[in-house]
Amino acid sequence: MGIASVDLLDAIGREIVFKSLRLGRVLDTSGKPLSDVRTFRAVNSVRIRGGPHSTIRRCEVCNCILYAPVRSHHLVGDAGNFLGLSGTDRGGEFIADESIVEHIDRPRFKNLGISKIRVLSQPLDGYPIDLEKTPSLASISA
Questions:
Q1: pTM
Q2: Beta bridge partners of residue 39, listed in sequence order
């Protein structure tokens, strides 16, 4: 889950935001809703992959995959799979294609961190494209 300003969400476009994100309220310490920010959770999330020093393991409590991308951040798959607006497995960030980024007035949002991320057909970390099929993890899963 992340927090975004209402101004940024409006700049992205209401139709895209309401189709791609689930929004919530942010409360101040007294419980009063803040009007200028919203929490968000993406409808679809993508996993950011890393280089050869990335680590992977399963949570002993919930059995989910815990993956830590190290350097060489990239997405794996076909670039067409990453059109629109998606969340990431890292929580408070999202992935937007160039057509969405074009609508954002960069001087107005000068502190907004926007960076390009590569889309590759094969991961650089040495793990399978589908991390569920990682041999050392498959042997310990229930």
A1: 0.78
A2: 3, 24
